[in-house]
UniProtKB/TrEMBL annotation:
Membrane topology classification: Lipid-anchor; GPI-anchor
GO function terms (MF aspect): copper ion binding; oxidoreductase activity
Origin species: Oryza meyeriana var. granulata
InterPro entries listed in its UniProt record: Cu-oxidase-like_N, Cu-oxidase_2nd, Cu-oxidase_C, Cu-oxidase_fam, Cupredoxin, CuRO_1_AAO-like
Domain named Plastocyanin-like: residues: 32-145, 158-312, 396-528
Coarse class of the protein's main subcellular location: membrane
Protein name from the UniProt record: Monocopper oxidase-like protein SKU5
Record key words, sorted: Cell membrane, Copper, Glycoprotein, GPI-anchor, Lipoprotein, Membrane, Metal-binding, Signal
Upper taxonomic lineage: Eukaryota, Viridiplantae, Streptophyta, Embryophyta, Tracheophyta
Superkingdom: Eukaryota
Keyword rRNA-binding: no
Signal peptide (residue range): 1-21
Keyword Manganese: no
Length: 592
């Protein structure tokens, strides 16, 4: 009997090996908790992963299977979302309220997803209740497979840099301000890798603040991956006396282009090659400063780190490198964005050129124009809207409601065009079909830059301009080498148009990355339904460890709370060990 059971186990594991052997696994154990840090000189509570702020970089390669065991040691529910990771046909791992029940305090949950056919620079963060304003973010680096050539020489080092505006108030206080109808106001500063500014000005920067130093060797070239993980402020990034050679953004190799500075908007990620070609007479400033504001009032909203050559002759001093001088030229930043083009001749995750998918020649099957306005009052509460609808997440995740045929959780009546009726609060979702080709126009009628992100997809940015979008605007579209990415800026009083191929069934979040307007309702979902296939055919089945809540809460089994990460970590480690042993046994059995 034991022999038969062992044989069955070996057969099952052999099948597992055959189907997964070519795609390695990467395992991570995370304890998400509060720690005390003083990034701007004042002790405050931040969200850390394994006691680190920012969290660790997930360094993986195309097609890796990623297993992340997350223990929630916070005092409130938690999810982790993976900005830019496409979760091919597997929205169950997306980590947003439309697809996942939150992880309760003291519980752990394991994400298991594959970075199928992806390369590039991305980041993860906690998407619930303004938590990203307290930290919990980290980088995702998806490297090319060795068999795929990269369109630049191998750099001498790889550096991840998180920039973002920061408040001394914790995320719960910021949340309460928004609930009370207040503005968040000017941030208290800009952090670089979780640290405050170098003391470049004694009157602006207090003494004793820890700042980030990046150590480099003269003559070498480094790959900088820069992510704006802030709350709501667009930042101009620059390195004193150094050229920024842009080569990749959010999973697409770009035409190599040199910048002295580049605007990086909330939620965006860029990769630069930076050569250490200066004489190192002193250290050099790395700067991220607020954009589209009164700079004389916002001088404190500037992050400063140090680039330190090994042969540097002294500390950085003097004024910071100048930001763009475009106070009276609102097209400067937009023209920067328009100039970023996809390298259509190189491969990325696969050897075929990035331009082999001729998006400009495909017939569009659906068009949505999503317009946001300045905040409005709905039922006595301050809210933000898309097409007049302020999204309110149901207690039951949308995808879970579909699986268990729970009706009335959400509606499929999201308007294709802006409406003139009074704003309403609801859970209205864009309805679409597998393999549709969709055009989305984001129209920003607010007074601040909004950046929009779509989970599960990369889209082609084909046009942007000031004014109101009309059908005639299509005449300006770039139909050949528009960059493919997952997050795009929309300037105030302007529009941005994107195209996307809906080749991944599921429910996918469409949101602004600005935390304040997102929290107040500026989001929706796209339901991509496959009537000919669907669940367990073109879409993956729900994972065995799925959490239940809302209308399905009675299905949830109790989980013993963990006092620390040790139990969860030990269990995950044991599981990995047993899996490795069993796979080894299978390999031996197959050889014999």
């Amino acid at each position: 009997m034991a022999g038969a059971a062992a044989a069955a186990l070996l057969l099952a594991l052999a099948t597992f090996m055959v189907t997964h052997a070519a795609d390695p696994y990467a395992f991570f154990d995370w304890d998400v908790s509060y720690i005390t840090a003083s990034p701007l000189g004042l002790p405050q509570q931040v969200i850390a992963i394994n006691k680190k702020f920012p969290g660790p970089v997930v360094n993986i390669t195309t097609n890796y299977n990623v297993v992340v065991n997350v223990l929630n040691s916070l005092d409130e529910p938690l999810l982790i979302t993976w900005d830019g990771i496409q979760h091919r046909k597997n929205c169950w791992e997306d980590g947003v309220l439309g697809t996942n029940c939150p992880i309760p305090p003291g519980w752990n949950w394991t994400y298991n997803f594959q970075v199928k056919d992806q390369i590039g620079s991305f980041f993860y963060f906690p998407p619930l209740g303004m938590q990203r304003a307290a930290g919990g973010f980290g980088g995702i680096t998806v490297n090319n497979r060795a068999v795929i050539s990269v369109p630049f020489d191998t750099p001498d080092g790889d550096i991840t840099l998180f920039i973002g505006d920061w408040y001394k108030k914790n995320h719960k206080d910021l949340r309460k301000m928004l609930d009370d109808g207040k503005e968040l106001g000017m941030p208290d500063g800009v952090l670089m890798n979780g640290k405050g500014p170098y003391r470049y000005n004694d009157s602006l920067v207090p003494d004793g603040i820890e700042y980030e130093t990046i150590n480099v060797e003269p003559g070498k070239t480094y790959h900088f991956r820069v992510h704006n993980v802030g709350v709501s402020t667009s930042l101009n990034f620059r390195i004193q006396n150094h050229n920024l050679a842009l080569v990749e953004t959010e999973g697409s190799y770009t035409m190599k282009q040199n910048f002295s500075n580049l605007d990086i908007h909330v939620g965006q990620s860029y990769s630069f090659l930076i050569t250490m070609d200066q004489n190192a007479s002193s250290d050099y400033y790395i700067v991220a400063s607020a954009r589209f504001v009164n700079e004389s009032l916002w001088t404190r909203v500037t992050g400063v780190a140090i680039l330190h050559y090994s042969n540097s002759k002294g500390k950085a001093s003097g004024p910071l490198p100048d930001p763009p001088n475009d106070e009276y030229d609102k097209t400067f930043s937009m023209n920067q964005a328009r100039s970023i083009r996809m390298n259509v001749s190189t491969g990325a995750a696969r050897p075929n050129p990035q331009g082999s998918f001729h998006y400009g020649s495909i017939n569009v099957s659906q068009v949505y124009k999503l317009r946001n306005e300045p905040p409005v009052t709905v039922n006595g509460k301050k809210r933000t809207t898309l097409n007049g609808i302020s999204y309110s997440p149901p207690e039951t995740p949308l995808r879970l409601a579909d699986l268990y045929k729970k009706e009335g959780v959400y509606t499929l009546d999201f308007p294709t065009m802006p409406t003139d009726g009074p704003p309403v609060v609801g859970s209205s979702v864009i309805n679409s079909t597998y393999k549709n080709f969709m055009e989305i126009v984001f129209q920003n009628n607010d007074t601040k830059v909004q950046t929009y992100h779509i989970d599960g997809y990369a889209f082609w940015v084909v046009g942007m301009d000031y004014g109101e979008w009309t059908e005639n605007s299509r005449g300006t579209y770039n139909k050949w080498d528009g960059v493919s990415r997952c997050t795009t800026q929309v300037f105030p009083g302007a529009w941005t148009a994107v195209l996307l191929s809906l080749d991944s069934p599921g429910l996918w979040n469409v949101r602004t990355e600005n935390l304040d307007t997102w929290y107040l309702g500026q989001e929706t979902y796209i339901r991509v339904f496959d009537p000919a296939g669907g669940y367990n055919v073109t879409e993956m089945v729900a994972p065995d460890n799925i959490l239940y809540c809302g209308l399905l809460k009675d299905k949830q089994k109790a989980q013993k709370p963990h006092g620390s990460s040790s139990l969860a970590s030990s269990a995950a480690t044991l599981n990995r060990y047993l899996l490795a042993v069993m796979l080894s046994l299978v390999a031996v059995a197959l050889v014999q």
